[in-house]
């Protein structure tokens, strides 16, 4: 699919409700806020969980939203031409329509980014642009990992630093901040937003508090972080529940 921009640039979990166990960044302890969010983010774009649950197809949109998508063009003037069966409505307003689609997760062991599982596309009405005639244009097209919206905190990438030991209650993790941080680690800013243990799995939501001040955007290094469960892990699956569609946490480089 062609992509360009004119501007700068339940599924499985909604809010996790309890915190069990404890954790510490190495070597200091980490605070544990009370709950996770009930909203989603796709590359910074706010997405309602209700929209993800409803998955309203493009064929069911009202006439205004359908007109916006039909008339929208890329910045080179070519039509948008979405495949209707792939996309569903995320949000519609008088001057914009946001649509979303699922994409296959393809982890890249060499990348510190969370592998995308969705694509978001926004068309916007532009009537006052100096270099464009009035009309509907694609204003954003991005792949993203759909995450919980944690407000000021961001959802990081999580990997195991060492293989989890079924007989241990300690998880040794590597946490990589996904927002700009001038290439520094996240030491002292990682928080357990939620840790929910059942007999079959462990759902973990981590958040990273931002540093104050402006930040550049080189890749951030991974930060060691230790989580202590209430009981030995056993055969339970450990899920990154900071993602709207939780995934098993993998060993680093896998």
Automatic annotation (TrEMBL):
It comes from Microbacterium allomyrinae. This is Uncharacterized protein. It comes from the Bacteria. Residues 1-25 form the signal peptide. Keywords: Signal.
């Amino acid at each position: 699919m062609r992509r360009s921009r004119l501007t700068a640039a339940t599924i499985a979990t909604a809010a996790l409700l309890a915190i069990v166990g404890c954790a510490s960044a190495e070597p200091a302890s980490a605070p544990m806020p009370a709950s996770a969010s009930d909203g989603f983010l796709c590359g910074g774009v706010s997405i309602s969980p209700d929209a993800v649950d409803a998955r309203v197809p493009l064929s069911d949109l009202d006439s205004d939203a359908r007109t916006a998508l039909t008339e929208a063009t890329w910045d080179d003037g070519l039509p948008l031409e979405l495949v209707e069966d792939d996309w569903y409505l995320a949000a519609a307003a008088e001057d914009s329509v946001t649509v979303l689609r699922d994409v296959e997760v393809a982890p890249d062991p060499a990348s510190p980014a969370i592998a995308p599982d969705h694509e978001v596309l926004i068309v916007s009405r532009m009537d006052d642009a100096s270099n464009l005639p009035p009309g509907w244009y694609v204003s954003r097209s991005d792949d993203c990992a759909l995450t919980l919206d944690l407000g000021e905190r961001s959802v990081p990438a999580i990997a195991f630093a060492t293989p989890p030991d079924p007989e241990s209650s300690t998880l040794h993790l590597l946490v990589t901040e996904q927002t700009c941080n001038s290439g520094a680690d996240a030491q002292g800013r990682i928080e357990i937003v939620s840790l929910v243990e059942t007999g079959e799995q462990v759902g973990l939501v981590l958040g990273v508090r931002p540093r104050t001040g402006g930040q550049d955007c080189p890749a951030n290094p991974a930060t060691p972080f230790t989580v202590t469960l209430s009981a030995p892990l056993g055969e339970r699956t450990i899920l990154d529940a900071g993602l709207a569609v939780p995934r098993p946490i993998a060993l680093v480089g896998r």
